[in-house]
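Task card 7
Instruction: Convert sequence to structure tokens.
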Amino acid sequence: YDVVLMDMQMPVWDGLQSMRAMRRAEAETGRPRTAIVALTADAMAHQIEEQRAAGADSHAAKPIQLTQLLAAIDIALEAAGAAGDAGDAAADGADGAAPAAA
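Output:
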């Protein structure tokens, strides 16, 4: 998927648990980072920070407004792309060049 719209209040697993599991699976399998937008009424600064720490790339507060959602998706796609690019550079070497053959 290009982007996941993650409801933060779901039965069984909440959004925080789900995002942590997604990020862990991406790291373990080497899959590229999927952009995640956290969808929730929890819009206080410490709640948004907790969502980002769990793996959210952006946040859209409920009730959702279309312009706000589209902006959050754009931010998430950019953030996930930047995180993926940083991960690629780290894997290649600090300067982004391909690692030397052994």
